[in-house]
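User: tokens in, sequence out, please.
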């Protein structure tokens, strides 16, 4: 959620909703997102949202385009796929068009489309986004921390795997079903991650950054019990602890820490200066583990929701 709203514009404003965008519309939105990222210092729309943007029609996904005249000045995405939670949204206004009420107009359209059951991300938690949440009547619901640590001179103890556990790398096609099953079990409490489908996995494997050599699987007696999927942000010089999961029943034996160490060593071997990860602030146990591994909070994403 990125905006800066003070007054409504004098020129005509229109908001249209689409289930899928044309190639030209997609390019326009991606260009808007690029400008916003350069201005704000972080993405206004998450990786999953950008995949939805480029991936054609998806059930439960809506794209809202805000135009003034013929110019695209705002974008919002609404995801209504969770059977329990309120629909989730992200929105952004072009930096050159902030301060004219466009963010409030998009937020109001999202509230109307969701029946006033809405969760909205504010990446970076900037003051303008906090103000917009207040104007829309939304309250703070969730805090997601981005944590970082240096990889140069990485000095971590050798990983100690539980008895009978071995680690290998992911093989696309062979390991898809088993990984999706363990991921769903490990993140049953976390619908954004735990609900990933084969299409979601395929989308990620089609991305330029995907490298199975950085996707580590832990097995016991041939059964997948945990994983550490790393990701490289080459332009930013960042290595990411992208997804780390251990199947329920296999937790508590040090496997998560061992997999984290294996992944960090892999990223450090690629001469990346910094590692990053995302973790919910209320997951005190995970935050504590990462802090002991040298991670500190770099920035925070906030999620707001309606009270109805």
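Assistant: Sequence out:
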């Amino acid at each position: 959620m990125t905006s800066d709203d003070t007054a409504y514009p004098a020129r005509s404003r229109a908001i249209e909703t689409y289930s899928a965008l044309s190639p030209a519309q997609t390019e326009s939105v991606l260009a808007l997102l690029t400008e916003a990222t350069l201005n704000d210092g972080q993405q206004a729309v998450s990786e999953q949202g950008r995949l939805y943007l480029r991936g054609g029609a998806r059930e439960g996904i809506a794209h809202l385009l805000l135009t003034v005249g013929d110019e695209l000045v705002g974008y919002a995405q609404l995801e209504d796929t969770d059977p329990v939670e309120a629909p989730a949204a992200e929105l952004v206004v072009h930096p050159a068009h902030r301060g004219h009420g466009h963010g409030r107009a998009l937020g109001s359209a999202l509230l109307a489309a969701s029946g006033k059951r809405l969760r909205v991300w504010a990446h970076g938690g900037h003051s303008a986004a906090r103000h917009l949440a207040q104007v829309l009547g939304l309250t703070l619901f969730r805090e997601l921390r981005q944590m970082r640590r240096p990889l140069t001179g990485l000095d971590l103890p050798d990983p100690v795997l539980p008895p009978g556990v071995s680690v290998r790398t992911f093989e696309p096609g062979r390991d898809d079903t088993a990984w999706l099953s363990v991921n769903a079990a490990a993140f049953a409490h976390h619908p954004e991650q735990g609900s990933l489908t084969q299409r979601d996995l395929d989308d990620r494997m089609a991305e330029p950054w995907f490298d199975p050599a950085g996707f580590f699987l832990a097995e016991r007696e041939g059964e997948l019990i945990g994983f550490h999927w790393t990701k490289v942000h080459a332009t930013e010089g960042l290595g990411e602890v992208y997804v780390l999961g251990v199947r329920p029943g296999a937790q508590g034996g040090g496997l998560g820490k061992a997999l984290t160490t294996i992944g960090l060593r892999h990223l450090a071997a690629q001469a990346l200066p910094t590692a990053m990860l995302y973790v919910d602030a209320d997951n005190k146990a995970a935050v504590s583990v990462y802090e002991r591994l040298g991670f500190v909070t770099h920035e925070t994403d906030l999620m707001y929701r309606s009270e109805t």
